[in-house]
Amino acid sequence: MRWELYLLGRFQLAVDGQLVDEFEADSARALCAYLCLHNGEAIRRERLATLLWPEQAQENALRNLRTALSRLRRGLGPLSEALHSANQNVMLTLPQAGAWVDVLTLQELSAAISAHAHRRLEGCPRCLAAAHQIAELYAGDFLAGFALESETFWEWASLQRETFHRAALDAMTALSSYHLQCQAWNEAERYARHALHLEPWREESHRHLMQALAGSGQRTAALRQFHLCQQVLRREFDAEPEAATVALYAQIHAHKGQRNRNTDSDRPGQLSPGGPHWLDDLPFVGRAAELATLIDRLVAPTTRLVTLVGEGGVGKTRLALRAARRVAPSFPDGVFYIELNPEQSGQAIAALASAATARVAQHIAYACAIPLDTQTSHEMSVKRHFRQRSSLLLLDGFEQSEEALPFLLALLEEAPGCVLLVTTHRPLSVRLEWVLRLEGLSVSPAIGTGDYDAVAPVESLRLFEVLAQRRGIAAFLHTDHLNAAWQICQAVGGLPLGIELAVACLPHVDRLNAAQWSAEELAHILQRAAQPGERTLSDLPPRHRGLRALFEASWQLLEADLRQTLASIAVLRTVFTPAAAAAIIDAPATDAAAQQLWRLVDRSLLQTYDAQHFRLHDRIHRFAVEKLAASGQELLSHQRHARYFLRTLADTEYALHSCDSFAVQQQLVAMME
Fold first, then answer.
1. Using CA atoms, how far apart are residues 505 and 547, in angstroms rounded to an integer?
2. Rg of the chain over CA atoms, in angstroms?
3. Residue-averaged pLDDT of the chain
4. Is the dihedral of CA 188, 190, 193, 194 positive or negative?
5. What are phi and psi of 381, to 5 degrees?
6. For the whole model, what pTM was predicted?
7. pLDDT at 392 > cutoff 80
8. Which residues are CB-neighbours of 586 under 8 A, at least 6 positions away?
9. Domains of the chain: residue spans and CATH
10. How far is CA 492 from the centre of its chain?
11. Residue 335, H or E segment
């Protein structure tokens, strides 16, 4: 049995989805509403009688109460036993299961939002979900259409009505703000109109509606909305619109109103200028608990520095980006992804801490489009830029830049609205830091052959299956290969990088004529490598031995030309283009080099930003460096790289003196590292 009472809008009771009304009078309905909002509380009969019939003698009022209680008991239907009216007290005790009241749910949601610490409601995914439920629940004013003649009751009801009205209005305002930042113009318009229906003079909602209309190309309607706002304010308060509303009107009138400061990205959390696109196309499997924990920490107003700690290939960047996008509305001045170049020269970094600091400051300045000049240090320019801003900076790969930690702490001290999310291999060990350690995806301790239902919730196997399906290996885990897949995931300790490499080694339709491992063969190779008796790998933890063996297995499957390409591009330590690769591998044309690179992408040995930008994961890069050293081509590759750099330097001489000089400098510095 499902008992549902609706008090927002018209009074309605539904039992198992069917509307019923046996209350007979508004006095019984009013009594029901009052007792529901005092659920589980014993209330004196005299208090209820005075509430509903304040102008009648107490004896008459109590007689009317007895009649109303009788009607209420009939009206409650299957919940009649929840009404207790013995002695001098009356109490309604709704069962936790089977009974639902809209205003009680709204109260719970509103209380949860108020109790949760966050920077901005529209930037907190948990509270935003609660706000969405409130907006859906709010069907109208509390007890709309009632005709009860009791001033005392209406004083109480008016207070409840205002509370629920305010909760719904705040929820709809937050939702319209959030959807503006998403550039979901239709949704933003819908919630802004709902908010204005509740409070026509709410100027913030007028601005939201103007922005939504302008964003969807309805500039004339947006301008008309300003004049409507002006009329409402003059009529209600004899006042004029705020300066912010007038400024928005001027922007729209000048064809600049499609976007404002909070909506200048394609989606909430879009990283500026652009995120690492190779991760956008990869499946995000598992990590629900870690994601929720990280989001809660980032939206907390007391958080300044979060460190996401884990080994390479465990998925730190992927998780950090997902969380950063989700909390983006909490940071009205932007969320920025700053990749700190992996595998920098350790000697160069250790030589001078100030050099590492300047380099980190340069990376931040470039990612955030902060203008630099020769009169001010990079560090000072960055601190000055963020001093009055509320931003989230995602610093990816800080393990090679730890000498710059004092600069980051100084930045946090001088920019109170700035929050840092840092991915690294080890904690920073500072007072402000909040650490989240990331391990490999879950791996079940043991499975039975073909026991798919038992392993379906296991994160590592779910990722294995999703990646296999993307390569045309349908329902891989539903076959006899399930046990081999489990052994592979176990051998690499659930590391997403290892699972991705393993799946790339398996047979699939796009490489029928290429060398491939069966799942069983690959599992055997990895299990053998994990044994402590393996001489060359015995000093590594089991999952590292498995990952190392997986690199070797992937290497063995490569054709000779791809082996040479992978080894040679190890001299390119950061993001590079096909043109750079062509120079290093001495390809006849850039297109030929691009084909080689995309073949490595297919083997999951190379990552892509987009069609023209590639990079090696730092763990694969270290492996490629070893192969280059063993090939006897290391000196030649570095010489080709040097010649390419000099040609690029000559070609960019003019640009070095242009307004894009800093971007060009960044490109050249990346090539040198």
1. 13
2. 32
3. 85
4. negative
5. -60, -40
6. 0.81
7. yes
8. 640
9. 3-103 (1.10.10.10), 106-134+164-263 (1.25.40.10), 277-437 (3.40.50.300), 477-554 (no CATH), 560-672 (1.10.10.10)
10. 27
11. strand 335-339
